[in-house]
Design goal:
The complex is a heterodimer of chains A (about 120) and B (about 110). By secondary structure, chain A is mostly beta strands. In chain A, about 0% of the residues lie in helices and about 50% in strands. Chain A contains no helices and 11 strands. In chain A, strands 2, 4, 5, 6, 9, 10 and 11 form a 7-stranded mixed β-sheet that branches. Chain A is globular, with a radius of gyration of 14 Å. The model of chain A has no long low-confidence stretch (mean pLDDT about 95). In chain B, a hairpin with a 6-residue loop joins strand 3 and strand 4. The termini of chain B are far apart. The model of chain B has no long low-confidence stretch (mean pLDDT about 95). The chains are: A mainly beta (about 120), B mainly beta (about 110). At the A-B interface, strand 5 and strand 10 of A face strand 7 and strand 8 of B.
């Protein structure tokens, strides 16, 4: 059974950085890309980027380029999202999501989400 | 403003049918597959339709999808209280070179 388990909630000050982890199980980690999506309170879904878990190649939404970095550790089947220079409007739930095997355009399994709160 | 346009809300009685529209352009819906996600309060989105109209394993056939040009529609028949949720459409946009979502539609089962 496929599972994506994320790290816990974080509270950060403006200007700080945050790392959210996404530990996967139940499938071959390098078979499926991992994407990251966030949702601010009361708002819709917003895509941040994707990472090839096999090659490490990444693609980021222009809005986040320069502030977001996606990495992985294949030895422990875990993906990471780093977001720097945090602002109040980065307060959101952040999800990792797996795409279907050999695909990169839909999300079939999601983590439970990690709330990141940015406040002074 | 979302790249894909959805109505903010729809409602219907239990047992009835409801449709949710999602409108885009030739750079997204018109040239790429669309997926639909159901988000219950306080939970992660759940895939309910993939590749415009396919249902993933475990999704009841009460859920359906259709596509015409640069618009797609999610249909839900035999509405149940448990269907009350937000629904989001999503697709890759080749011009923006990113995945885009609709703004979400709140389904209320009256």
């Amino acid at each position: 059974q496929v599972h994506l388990v994320q790290s816990g909630a974080e509270a950060k000050r403006p200007g700080a950085s945050v790392t959210v982890s996404c530990e996967t199980s139940g499938y071959t980690f390098t078979d499926c890309y991992i994407h990251w999506v966030r949702q601010a309170p009361g708002q819709g879904l917003e895509w941040l980027g994707w990472m090839s878990t096999k090659s490490g190649v990444t693609k980021y939404a222009r809005k986040f380029q320069g502030r977001v970095t996606l990495t992985r550790d294949t030895s422990i089947s875990t993906a990471y999202m780093d977001l720097t220079n945090l602002r109040a409007d980065d307060t959101a739930v952040y999800w990792c999501a797996r795409v279907g095997p050999r695909r990169n355009d839909f999300f079939d399994y999601w983590g439970q989400g990690a709330l990141v709160t940015v406040s002074s | 403003q979302s790249v894909l346009t959805q109505p903010p809300s729809v409602s219907a009685d239990p047992g009835q049918k409801v449709t949710i529209s999602c409108s885009g352009s030739s750079s997204n819906i018109g040239s790429n597959y669309v997926s639909w996600y159901q988000q219950l309060p306080g939970t992660a989105p759940k895939l309910v339709i993939v590749d415009d109209y396919q249902r993933p394993s475990g999704i009841p056939d009460r859920f359906s999808g259709s596509k015409s040009g640069t618009s797609v529609t999610l249909g839900i028949t035999g509405l149940q209280a448990g269907d009350e949720a937000y629904y989001y459409c999503g697709s890759w946009d080749r011009s923006l070179d990113m995945f885009v979502f609709g703004g979400g539609t709140k389904l209320t089962v009256l």
